[in-house]
Every structure is written in structure tokens, then in C-alpha cells.
Design brief:
It catalyses: 3-(carbamoylamino)-2-methylpropanoate + H2O + 2 H(+) = (R)-3-amino-2-methylpropanoate + NH4(+) + CO2; 3-(carbamoylamino)propanoate + H2O + 2 H(+) = beta-alanine + NH4(+) + CO2. This protein is α/β, with parallel strands linked by helices and about 375 residues long. The protein is built from 9 helices and 16 strands. It starts with a helix and ends with a helix.
Length: about 375
């Protein structure tokens, strides 16, 4: 059973060559934080990602982020209340550990308090998980923890917008250190591939590309499928993000070869940190569903392969969390690196945004003209 690529490398690459292999694959090595823990179901890994530039006039801006990946707990045939409460209880214990490691900003995986039931196309019971972003039970639950631990928490949920006719959205709620809701972002890009039947429940978001000015860093959230769209990443950078979280739910066989690349490329292209979070395990449902590809009906969506990781603006990245276990990844980041990389590489300075905007406008105009 493959756990991580790093473990395979360490098992088969001679030690005298391993350091060079990792340098080529991952860039400058991250320094362990010395907080490793592992049992049969859960692991904690911690890495420090420091800038290689030492300034005379500015001190490092060090903060700690935490990423939590996890499986569901109760069977999908249990009551909605039992399923959600079981996840709450498990994830609360992980958040407590994150607080013990002095995490400032914590991000959970896409649709974290529920199974990823969108594959089924069944409206009920799954729509019962939808809740108000500001006052729903998940936000209330996490607000208490955010306030208790002086922690910003990014909570991706299924949102029910009662102000707009009970519309449902795939939403990430940003909860501030005082327990109040700092803001929210709705998923910009909705997949239409295989069993990703998400447009059965919600459509593209209407919040644009917000960046949230937290007490620790300027952050943004690029939800799941948005990582396949480079311009989506670009806009968060143009709006001032220093860290972009990518809470996801993605499966083996479809995207795993893309997973280590996309968030890392975005960090390089936009001179910010990226944090990619994926859920873990296989979730089984009572009723069979099909993918519309002629293959037999099935009761599970596939294997969520975890493998959460962090990439720095210079392109270096941490090793991944496990493919099979729940995990907490802690990253100590120097936010000054965002500016250092901009100075050294000049990507922002050498962008041709005016040219891109002109040609994009021309392309859209021609395309829309052809459709008329």
C-alpha cells in the first residue's frame, strides 16, 4: 500500500543520492519543526519554509498554517446529525492539536463536515447538510474554537443562502480570531467530469476573487476545481494574497498526477504560498449511481488520496501527508519570501497584463459574436 512518494524514495534511493534527488524534485529543502507524530490512523508533520534572503532592515514575518485532511467517520446511511457530529468530534481533536503547535491559520478540506455526496445526484438527504454561512451550526462550532485558540479558521461548507431563495453554494467561510465571520468565498469553477455531479447542487460562485486581511496574513481560497484554471490563481495574487488555500476533494485515477503540480505552479507564477488539502478514504453510498461512461453502476466515488502539501513562492515544497491517514500538516512560513521572490524573479514586473486584457477582451468579443 503506497503511503507517500517520499517514503518510496527513501526506501529505494541510496542515502548518498537522496538529498540531490529531493533537491531536484522539491527545491530547497524544508526544515523539520520537530513535531512529528504518527499512529495507525493519524499523523502530524511540521516543516519550516524560510526565505534564503536575509534582510538588514526587516525581521522575518513568521506565521504558522495548519492543514487538516481527514476521512468521514459514520456510515453515509447514518442520520445526518450523527454523521456531522462524528466528524465534528474527530476534527475538534485535530484542531486542539493544531493549537498546541501554535497554528495561526487553519484550513479544512472541501465540504469537510459531510461525505462528498455530490457524486450521487440525490438531493436528499444530502441537501440537509447545507447551512447558513454566518449562523449555521458548523460556523458556530468553529467560532468557539477560533476564539478560544486565537486562530483564523477556513471552513469549506455546503452553504444555504436563505436570503437568496435558499440557493445552495460551495462556500469557504473565513472565521476570525474573535470568532466572527471575516467573510466568505464561493467556488468559482464547477466540474462536469465523471462522477463530479456538483452542478446538480450548486453553480459557479458570485464572490469573485476576495482576499481576506487576517491578523496574520492576507489569504484567499481557491476551492478544489479552481486549481485547474491558472487565471483563477492569478486573480487572487493580483488582489494581494500572500497565502492561497486550495481545499479539495479529488480521487485517485483522475487527478493524482496533476495534484503535485498545479498548486506548486501557482505558487511559482504568483509569488505566494499555496496550501493544497485533500480528503482521505473511500465513501460508500446506499444507492448505486453511474458516471455516464457505459461502465457499471457503483456505490463509491473513488479513493480520496490525501497527500496535502505546502509550496513556497520560490517553488520549494514540503513532503506530502499520507495517502491513507488523517493528518495535520503544520507549516511555519516567512511571508517576506513573497516579496523576496518578486524582487528576484520579477514576474509581477514583467507581466503584460494590459496585453493579456486586450487580447482576452478581443477573444471574448469574437467568441460571443459567433454565438449570436
Amino acid at each position: 500500500m503506497t503511503e507517500t512518494v517520499e517514503q518510496i524514495l527513501e526506501q529505494y534511493i541510496p542515502q548518498n543520492k537522496l538529498t540531490e534527488v529531493k533537491r531536484i524534485l522539491y527545491g530547497h529543502s524544508s526544515t523539520p519543526l520537530g513535531i512529528e507524530y504518527e499512529d495507525k490512523n493519524f499523523e502530524v508533520k511540521g516543516w519550516q519554509m524560510l526565505s534564503r534572503v536575509h534582510e538588514e532592515l526587516r525581521a522575518p514575518r513568521l506565521i504558522r498554517v495548519g492543514l487538516i485532511q481527514h476521512s468521514i467517520v459514520a456510515p453515509t446511511t447514518d442520520s445526518i446529525q450523527n454523521q456531522r457530529d462524528a466528524i465534528y468530534n474527530k476534527v475538534k481533536s485535530y484542531i486542539v492539536q493544531a493549537a498546541q503547535y501554535n497554528v495561526n491559520i487553519l484550513c479544512l478540506q472541501e465540504a469537510w463536515p459531510m461525505p462528498f455526496a455530490f457524486c450521487t445526484r440525490e438531493k436528499y438527504p444530502w441537501c440537509e447538510f447545507a447551512e447558513d454561512a454566518e449562523t449555521g451550526p458548523t460556523t458556530v462550532f468553529l467560532s468557539e474554537l477560533a476564539k478560544k485558540y486565537n486562530m483564523v479558521i477556513v471552513s469549506p461548507i455546503l452553504e444555504r443562502d436563505s436570503v437568496d431563495g435558499d440557493t445552495i453554494w460551495n462556500t469557504s467561510v473565513v472565521i476570525n480570531i474573535d470568532g466572527t465571520v471575516l467573510g466568505k468565498h464561493r467556488k468559482n469553477h464547477i466540474p462536469r467530469i465523471g462522477d463530479f455531479n456538483e452542478s446538480t447542487y450548486y453553480m459557479e460562485g458570485n464572490t469573485g476573487h476576495p482576499v481576506f486581511d487576517t491578523p496574520f496574513a492576507r489569504i484567499a481560497i481557491n476551492i478544489c476545481y479552481g486549481r485547474h484554471h491558472p487565471l483563477n490563481w492569478l486573480m487572487f495574487g493580483l488582489n494581494g494574497a500572500e497565502i492561497v488555500f486550495n481545499p479539495s476533494a479529488t480521487i485517485q485515477g483522475l487527478s493524482e498526477h496533476l495534484w503535485p503540480i498545479e498548486a506548486r505552479c501557482a505558487a511559482i507564477a504568483n509569488s505566494y504560498y499555496t496550501c493544497a488539502i485533500n480528503r482521505v478514504g473511500t465513501e460508500n453510498f446506499a444507492n448505486e449511481f453511474t458516471s455516464g461512461d457505459g461502465k457499471p453502476a457503483h456505490n463509491d466515488f473513488g479513493f480520496f488520496y490525501g497527500s496535502s502539501y505546502i509550496t513556497a513562492p520560490d517553488g520549494s515544497r514540503t513532503p506530502s501527508l499520507n495517502r491513507h491517514k488523517d493528518g495535520l500538516l503544520v507549516g511555519e512560513l516567512d511571508l517576506n519570501m513573497c516579496r523576496h521572490v518578486k524582487d528576484i524573479w520579477g514576474f509581477r514586473m514583467t507581466q503584460r497584463l494590459d496585453m493579456y486584457a486586450k487580447e482576452l477582451a478581443e477573444y471574448v468579443s469574437k467568441r460571443d459574436g459567433k454565438q449570436d
